[in-house]
Amino acid sequence: MEEVVETGISSVNQLGGLFVNGRPLPLDTRQQIVQLAISGMRPCDISRSLKVSNGCVSKILGRYYRTGVLEPKGIGGSKPRLATPPVVARIAQLKGECPALFAWEIQRQLCVEGLCTQDKTPSVSSINRVLRALQEDQRPPWIHLRLPAGLGPIPRTPHCDSEAPRGPHPGTGHRNRTIFSPGQAEALEKEFQRGQYPDSVARGKLAAATSLPEDTVRCSSFSWKI
User: Fold this and answer.
1) pTM: predicted TM-score of the whole model, two decimal places
2) DNA-binding region located at which positions (predicted)?
């Protein structure tokens, strides 16, 4: 049984080595581990020599052999939040003005407007989570959020103007665009990212999973390609 003795913010492992809970090993210790391994020392011997747990030594060496990276990964909470309040506000506004927009279309629009860069854009899953959270709010989602300066409504397009009317218009020949829920949109996106024209079997499974008619799934795959 491993005995750990608390000493302030540090602890002592069963080998007598000091460590800080939740913090990575110092870089100089990591360098010693790699240098000793390169010299031919076994991980268990490195563990005893440096008083670092064998599991920690193996993990550091395994990552170094796979990636060549010696530095620790980002500490929890250090990763910048991409869905900042201005970004969330813009997502809410875009979805409010054009409910038929998919998450990937919103993601692309954020980059086009310069609100996000290609390497610092919320993922499609993150945008869908934002949309689900906004949908739970009974108020119009963009009312209580502050928009970034200089950003106004997106240009109106047939894609946005084709919201479903309250009643049918027989004889007009106009096909209303289906407005998908966030869950349906996420399922469709995952399927169409694998292949933009699913076969009949895949369409049937997707229709059952999303509770959508198969004709709607077929039409969605066509519009996705466009």
Assistant:
1) 0.34
2) 173-219
